[in-house]
């Protein structure tokens, strides 16, 4: 290693080029701030290259595969349905490469200085960047940590082959698993389970130490019904004690609330927990406050205990989602530029690109009752929606919860086609503290899935047109 003798000065240094990091860099350039973005791998981070985008390529392909029989009903003959993993992997690589090049082009057009290398803090105002035999030192005015997180295997489970898979590995498989065991109860586990099942894999879900999925009870009930209909076995309150990879598969010893049992499959997907990527940053050298788990503690402006250092995304507490990182990245830069950003994650949408998709925003019915709120609840089944009938997507519903005392919307939950796209509307309604009348007043396109939201709200007072009256 050759150490540079002269340090270089920079105004703003961002460590990590994932969605939060590059969004922050481009926003800084828009605000006239000179900015340097440091990334040790590819721009776009894990989300673009190994996580969010690759996983959605699979979920999209699986969705299309699940629609084949309906295409026949519409008179669109597809012949014998086959699935080619190699072609899907090639398409995944093409999509991620195009998006990555787009990010690179945007950074270049915005005059963002991009430096490749591994960064670590030397002091609270300088960072060292190692790239091969070169080592450069940058003195900065402000820095933003956007280094993301990495999955961690549960205690007692270790990998010694290619059959126990984490989130950044499952979508690189060269062939479909014969029997995939999914260990987890989050949105990633659900996406993996329903996607691989649609593509032809036998799937068993082990709900890791959980009695159900993390959605509204009504959504969970419908989800469990559909999983049973698909013949996807779900084992609740499951805890893997050991997982052994063999030549032909994986042998698992697990316990449930009722018994201990052995389960075998060809592969195991483990959602696991995630740890912030801060171990090599050297934060403990000058007292950046962190939680016991290693997350950087921040204030409302994403500022750490060291005023010159900010942190965003997965290295901070809260949901480990790209949408959070992007929102915080823009907010941190706006604060550095002298603005007064407001980053409120209260109504962060909880979505799953599963089959069918799920979107949840605001309070669940159970949460509202636990808060002793007098609520009104209505649930409109998509089987009564004209466009759902046309598309053959009749499973699911839209559920709304409002405060009976003032008619303010408290929560919106949907399982069914269109849920992800409608989630932004759900967020906007709750952010603006919309009342029932605010939802009922506008005109809704017909036919469309949007009408499901209208009818759910009209159902709060028994006025939904396509809902059977309650006795």
Outline:
The protein has 471 residues and is of the alpha/beta class. The protein has helices at residues 19-30, 45-49, 52-66, 68-73, 85-109, 187-198, 217-229, 322-336, 365-370, 386-391, 419-431, 436-440, 450-458; strands spanning 2-3, 8-15, 35-39, 113-116, 118-123, 126-131, 134-145, 149-152, 164-165, 179-183, 202-208, 233-245, 250-255, 260-265, 267-270, 273-276, 309-311, 350-352, 358-362, 375-381, 397-403, 409-415. The chain contains 13 helices and 22 strands.
Structure description:
- The chain has 471 residues and is of the alpha/beta class.
- It has three domains: 212 residues, FAD/NAD(P)-binding domain (3-Layer(bba) Sandwich), CATH 3.50.50.60; 118 residues, 3-Layer(bba) Sandwich (FAD/NAD(P)-binding domain), CATH 3.50.50; 106 residues, Enolase-like, domain 1 (2-Layer Sandwich).
- The strands form four sheets. Strands 1, 2, 3, 4, 5, 6, 7 and 17 form an eight-stranded mixed sheet that branches. The protein has a seven-stranded mixed sheet with strand order 9-15-10-11-12-13-14.
- Helix 1 runs parallel beside helix 8, helix 3 packs across helix 5 and helix 3 crosses helix 6.
- The longest helix is centred in the N-terminal third of the chain and has 25 residues.
- The mean pLDDT is 95.
- Pfam families: Pyr_redox_2 (PF07992), Pyr_redox_dim (PF02852).
- Its EC number is 1.8.1.4.
- Its cofactor is FAD.
- It catalyses: N(6)-[(R)-dihydrolipoyl]-L-lysyl-[protein] + NAD(+) = N(6)-[(R)-lipoyl]-L-lysyl-[protein] + NADH + H(+).
